[in-house]
Amino acid sequence: MPVLVTSRSGGVSDPPFEGLNLGDHVGDADEAVAVNRRRLVDRLRMPVQYMRQVHGRQVAVLRRHGPPPQADALVTDVPGLVLAVMVADCAPVLFEAPAVVGVAHAGRVGMASGVIHATLGALERLGAARDELRVTIGPCICAGCYEVPEDLRCEVDTQVPGSAATTRVGTAAIDLRAGIRRQLAAAGVTDITISARCTAEDPELYSYRREGRTGRFAGLAWLGPTP
């Protein structure tokens, strides 16, 4: 049950989307995005399923490859179908169980609205037990870089206790990693891996906070062998 996170490397998009931009909604040339996506499929030798992300908590259960559903999480129990979540500061959260996988798009809004709990529920309905789940919180903006107004920090921390943080310069911030980890732990998930890579600091990753107009990298999960 492999998981993978892409980067800018290996793509054909021109600046400001330079590299392997997988987002077809950010203003990049359609032809470049199509080439980038084909390269990913060629590398994996499996179809990649995207979604139309809206910063919500909707979960789509997939049994075959098809048009991207409007959702912020995907789950499947079908081998050989790669689930993709696109990000550029939000956290890609990747779920693995013996016979089920899922991905979730968890930024500030999604985390607070309950996308993690919704994804866990969908995985359970497909037969996954929470104590057998392995969850990876992929690269996202770190607390030291995610500055927000004080009132927003308080609002989010009320919804997601433990997410309040402080930037490196002492201003109010949100800690996506800590908030998501606490949500997972409170739900009974114990096997949690957290990437230390910060999108705002790592030039190999796309970052809306750092760049504004930019591309999207992806977190991927699937049932089956690693190509």
Tell me what you see in this structure.
There is one protein chain. With 227 residues, the chain is α/β, with parallel strands linked by helices. The chain has a single domain, classed as CNF1/YfiH-like putative cysteine hydrolases (4-Layer Sandwich), CATH 3.60.140. The protein is 25% helix and 22% strand. The chain has 6 helices and 12 strands. A 6-stranded mixed beta sheet has the order 3-4-7-6-8-11. The protein has a 4-stranded mixed beta sheet with strand order 1-12-5-2. It has a two-stranded antiparallel sheet with strand order 9-10. A hairpin with a 5-residue loop joins strand 9 (164-166) and strand 10. The radius of gyration is 17 Å and the shape is globular. The N and C termini lie close together (11 Å). Keywords: Copper, Hydrolase, Metal-binding, Transferase, Zinc. One of its GO terms (molecular function) is hydrolase activity. Belongs to the purine nucleoside phosphorylase YfiH/LACC1 family. It comes from Frankia casuarinae (strain DSM 45818 / CECT 9043 / HFP020203 / CcI3).
